[in-house]
Design a protein that fits this description.
The protein has eight helices and eight strands; from the N terminus they run αβαββαββαβαββααα. The protein is globular and about 60 Å long. The protein has two domains: about 70 residues, 2-Layer Sandwich (Uridine Diphospho-n-acetylenolpyruvylglucosamine Reductase, domain 3); about 210 residues, Vanillyl-alcohol Oxidase, Chain A, domain 3 (3-Layer(aba) Sandwich), CATH 3.40.462. It has about 290 residues and is an alpha+beta fold.
């Protein structure tokens, strides 16, 4: 890793341990990582894909999903969304309509997949495309819909519940998505990610249930105000029900208080480490942590 003074350091659980703690969630505030070693886990073929319900069923599906996903085995995950189907590769009867959708991925034993998915399909989605596929395929299923060069506006929060008031807001704003590529995603925080202590890394929201993000997306600059307003209004309607902070890769330039809220009690420790390794705040084109 290259530090602000130009020196190289090795950072791991035994060397420069304070810096090792900080960079696992502290973003690009402390230096430039030039190489890294990580522990991989073999995943080859998975079982998954999208399921869709009419947007009018948002309250019902979110209530079921909250109970189901928080009791699901570690091998199963799926994020829930409000979205429009813009066109191919989806069938024509779905085009330009609003949906509540869930994109699933199961990495367990494939012979158990159909049994795992029975309660999902019992919810009678109007469209489902789930089955076996290579893991890289599920990671790139929707890449063709989002080519480089689109304009994006982001807002985000962490959440603990999807109760009636929350799902009502999702139904309201999911019913008036302004452009075909704009959408909301809610990613579960579960499994191994939820089992570490909140101060094990800078990410302090391991006890939250979901990382939510709303994105206004469109290729036409003339729609910038439209997608931005929808995104902001959606966020403002949901924020009172949030945990207070957000996953920082999902937010815009929203001020220092927002950054502090997203690190909660870990922010002060980060500022001290920042002062040690970057006292002049050379690395500041980021969600910035100020030197103590």
């Amino acid at each position: 890793m290259v530090l602000a003074d130009g020196s190289f350091v090795t950072v791991n659980a035994n060397q420069n341990t304070d810096l090792f703690w900080a960079i696992r969630g502290g973003g690009g505030n402390f230096g430039i990582v030039t190489s890294f070693k990580f522990q991989a886990h073999p995943v080859k073929t998975v079982f998954g894909g999208p399921t869709l319900w009419p947007i009018e069923k948002t309250n019902e599906i979110m209530k079921w999903y909250h109970e189901f996903i928080n009791n699901a085995p570690d091998e199963l995950n799926g994020f829930i969304a409000t979205l429009i189907i813009p066109g191919p590769p989806f069938p024509e009867f779905l085009h330009n309509k609003q949906f509540c959708g869930i994109v699933w991925c199961y990495v367990g034993e494939l012979e158990k997949a159909e049994e795992i998915f029975k309660p999902i399909l019992a919810m009678e989605p109007v469209f489902q495309h789930v089955g076996e596929m290579p893991y890289p395929s599920i990671q790139t299923l929707f890449d063709g819909l989002f080519p480089p060069g689109l304009q994006w506006y982001w807002r985000a929060d962490f959440f603990n519940e999807l109760g009636a008031d929350v799902s009502a807001r999702h139904l309201e704003f999911g019913s008036k998505i302004p452009t075909p590529l704009s959408q909301m995603h809610m990613y579960p925080i579960s499994g191994a990610a939820s089992r570490l202590a909140k101060d094990a890394t800078p990410w302090a929201y391991r006890d939250a249930k979901y990382a939510g993000v709303i994105v206004g997306v469109d290729p036409n600059p003339a729609n910038a105000d439209k997608i931005t307003k929808w995104c902001k209004d959606y966020w403002e309607a949901l924020h009172p029900y949030s945990s207070g902070g957000a996953y920082l890769n999902f937010i815009m330039n929203e001020g220092q208080d927002r950054i502090k809220a997203s690190y909660k009690g870990n922010y002060d420790r980060l500022t001290k480490i920042k002062k040690t390794y970057d006292p002049n705040n050379f690395f500041k084109v980021n969600q910035n942590i100020l030197p103590a």
